[in-house]
Amino acid sequence: MPSDSTAIKNPQDSSARQAVLLARQQMSRQIIGQKNLLDRLFIALLSDGHLLVEGAPGLAKTRAVNALASLVEGDFQRIQFTPDLLPADLTGTEIWQPDSGQFTFKPGPLFHNIILADEINRASAKVQSALLESMAERQITVGNTTHALPSLYMVMATQNPIEQEGTFPLPEAQLDRFLLHANVSYPNIDEETQILRLNQAEASRDLQADYTGNTKQMLSEKMLRQARREVLDVHLSPAVERYLVELIVATREPSRYDESLAKYLEYGASPRATIALNRTARALAWMQGRDYVSPGDIQAMIPDVLRHRVLLSYQAQAEGINVDQFVSRLLNLVPVA
């Protein structure tokens, strides 16, 4: 297997990858200081999965998905989740038409390509379960009729970790449907200075064309399908595949590597985590211009894949151990292929 240094720049880059990288570059001009968020957005898009983003208010979570939606061919819908939201507010409802004497289905906001579920943990369990079917099955059932959703369908949900009053924690079944769980942190001094200047430029309209219409290029659905096919073709060697699987299994049986680590675990990750890690590692390698997955790709993606899938024990919580720390210890214990 060639080393990363010789394979990162691939002279045979596809047109689909060039289009994705151009869109990624354009987004980076609008979203400053959130490289990890932008990368996870595109990895989720390329892997045909959904993204859960957690971070304090004002860190460009909503702005990022708005920017992505403007670059991708398809419809965008933002839904503000509140405690009084009803399932029908998402799925739509059947309305009686007196003229025809029949019920007519009126689609809800979920019938779009890219959905922003803003502050998803503020809605009740009923509303969250209505979203679950659309995420898991790519369909919505109202009454006795099942309605198919678009083939290009992605949900990006945000939640605020600061406020806990008036929130409803997502059930495990709902969390497991998210491909990735990304954390968003504050920008540094240089990045915040750039944010200030960008805001000033947008407010004054002097440089607005540099950040919007004139430089944006639509990422067509056809091009995105081609990119997804190429991602699936990225090579995963048997040795690296074994390493990937062993990492996930280690979340269920950490005592095989460290007896002291087992006391921090309540439940490990399901096979869905294995599938998610495989898809996202391939997408990361493809975006970096390689046609093979390296152990580094797996190590880079596994925190976001496991952050919402591993349940730690009360002892871990009492000792201040979080999932990221648990995964970091696993990476040090499980031998690389």
Can you give keywords for this protein?
Helicase, Ruva Protein, domain 3; disordered N terminus; alpha/beta; 15% strand; 337 residues; Rossmann fold
Walkthrough of the structure:
With 337 residues, the protein is α/β, with parallel strands linked by helices. The protein contains 16 helices and eleven strands. Strand 6 and strand 7 form a beta hairpin. The radius of gyration is 21 Å and the shape is globular. The two termini are 12 Å apart.
Topology:
Blueprint: H1 4-7, H2 15-30, H3 35-46, E1 51-54, H4 61-71, E2 76-80, H5 87-91, E3 92-97, E4 102-107, E5 114-118, H6 125-137, E6 139-142, E7 145-148, E8 154-159, H7 172-176, E9 180-183, H8 189-204, H9 208-211, H10 221-232, H11 238-250, H12 259-262, E10 265-267, H13 271-287, H14 295-306, E11 311-312, H15 314-318, H16 323-333
Parallel strand pairs: 1-8, 1-9, 2-5, 5-8
Antiparallel strand pairs: 3-4, 6-7, 10-11
- The domain count comes to 2
Number of helices in the DSSP assignment: 16
- The CATH topology of the largest domain: Rossmann fold
Quick one: CATH superfamily of the largest domain? P-loop containing nucleotide triphosphate hydrolases
Inertia-based shape = globular
- Shape-level CATH architecture of the largest domain: 3-Layer(aba) Sandwich
Number of strands: 11
SS-derived structural category: alpha/beta
Cα(first) to Cα(last) distance is 12 Å
Proportion of beta-strand residues: 5-15%
How is the largest sheet built, in terms of strand order?
Answer: 2-5-8-1-9
What is the alpha-carbon Rg in Å? 21 Å
The major sheet is characterized as:
5 strands, parallel
> Average pLDDT value?
86
- CATH class descriptor name of the largest domain: Alpha Beta
Low-confidence stretches: 1-9, 207-215
SSE ordering: HHHEHEHEEEHEEEHEHHHHHEHHEHH
